[in-house]
Amino acid sequence: MLSPKRSKFRKAHKGRIHGRAKRGSVLNFGSYGLKAISPQRVTARQIEAARRALTRHMKRAGRVWIRIFPDVPVSRKPAEVRQGKGKGTPEYWVCRVKPGRIMFEVDGVPRDVAMRALELAAAKLSLRTRFVARLGEED
Q1: Exposed end of the chain (fewer CB within 10 Å): N or C?
Q2: What are the chain's domains?
């Protein structure tokens, strides 16, 4: 699963996801992509599950690019622990995804295979998505 090798701070604030994606909103590598259309935190486990679904449907043909990386630690307190006594320990990593962000890109497979593979990957994610194709491709 994806996680940073090092981070400057061990714990992070929850924060809010405001606005649209400034960068990462156009296809740079592949012919087809999966674009986020709602703001959401995506966990490292969700990214890995989506990647597995994607590569399995494509039968390991073509190429896959993951354009998001979980770099925000999420801390959690154990069950049935009283309030106070500081913040909980970091449990997992998330990526804050803004609307308009391209999350996955695919190339080297036919359009229908790419569309179905990205549809299966989208089912593993907790946000609304849209299939996008490069301008040269028929839509």
Answers
A1: C
A2: 32-78+87-133 (3.90.1170.10)
